[in-house]
């Protein structure tokens, strides 16, 4: 359990997510750049969300232009 977010993250979460398949994933990001891709502030979240992205048939990207978080970990290409 990762206390900052109240979720399970890391290798255990990635193993569990490998067995879950979904039609649609709603994914929020801290930043989007046309060439560089999507960014999140936490590398552990990025690793789990990459796995979630692989397990979804469709990904709906949720981005807010008023969000002022610093995002250092690249999630993937936009």
The percent range for strand residues is 25-35%
Query: Main beta sheet, described?
Result: 3 strands, antiparallel
**Tally of helical runs:** 2
Report the C-alpha radius of gyration, rounded.
12 Å
Helices and strands in order:
Elements: H1 11-17, E1 22-28, E2 31-33, E3 37-40, H2 43-55, E4 56-62, E5 73-76
Parallel strand pairs: 1-4
Antiparallel strand pairs: 2-3, 3-5
Helix pairs in contact: 1-2
Task: Note down, in words, how this protein is organized.
It is a single chain. The chain is of the alpha+beta class. Helix content is 26%, strand content 32%. The protein has 2 helices and 5 strands, in the order αβββαββ. The protein has helices spanning 11-17, 43-55, and strands at 22-28, 31-33, 37-40, 56-62, 73-76. It has a 3-stranded antiparallel beta sheet, covered by helices on one side. Strands 1-4 form a two-stranded parallel ribbon. The relative contact order is 0.29. The mean pLDDT is 80.
List the defining traits of the structure above.
alpha+beta
Summarize, please.
The chain has 78 residues and is α+β, with helices and mostly antiparallel strands.
């Amino acid at each position: 359990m990762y206390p900052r977010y109240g979720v399970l993250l890391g290798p255990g979460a990635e193993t569990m997510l490998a067995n879950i398949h979904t039609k649609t994933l709603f994914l929020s990001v801290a930043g989007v750049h046309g060439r560089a891709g999507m960014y999140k502030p936490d590398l552990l979240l990025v690793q789990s969300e990459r796995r979630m992205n692989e397990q979804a048939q469709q990904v709906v990207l949720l981005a807010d232009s008023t969000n002022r978080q610093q995002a250092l970990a690249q999630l993937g290409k936009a």
